[in-house]
Amino acid sequence: MRLSAGEAYEKYADRVFAAAFAVCRDRADADDVTQDTFMRYLTHGQDFRSEEHVKAWLLRVAVNRARDMVRSFWRRSRAPWEETMAQLPFAEPADRGLFAAVMALPERYRAAIHLFYYEDMSVAEIAGLLSVREGTVKSRLSRGRKLLKNELMEEWDDDE
Length: 160
Fold this sequence. Notes:
Blueprint (H helix, E strand, L loop, with lengths): L4 H20 L2 H17 L7 H21 L9 H5 L7 H11 L3 H12 L4 H8 L3 H26 L1
């Protein structure tokens, strides 16, 4: 099974960008990762088992490429992710605060939270994508939720 590059881009570009942005927290870098991911898809010669396999492959490439970019010696300092966030559209005003709290998490928790809640991936799928054990994903989700809860409770208390 193989989608054309155009079909794959149309269906999954937003998800690939979001996964890349969750890791590197920079719009330009996430754009670069998205472009690189679809270039790799275009040159990837093998067929996939299903559309779900295509999606998982694209997300795995995007997360790995974003991690490489974050660790890169040549990465130049860019505008803070908060400035980029101001340009992103949100359906509800409360979504902006939640997204900001997720983006403030350390990368290991941020990636797991993003993949689980925004990409609707299972713990097993995330473990395969991040090359860690399922127990590690569960603990990252648990710790990430706890950090989010503390952060959001502090904001809520400040509003009162």
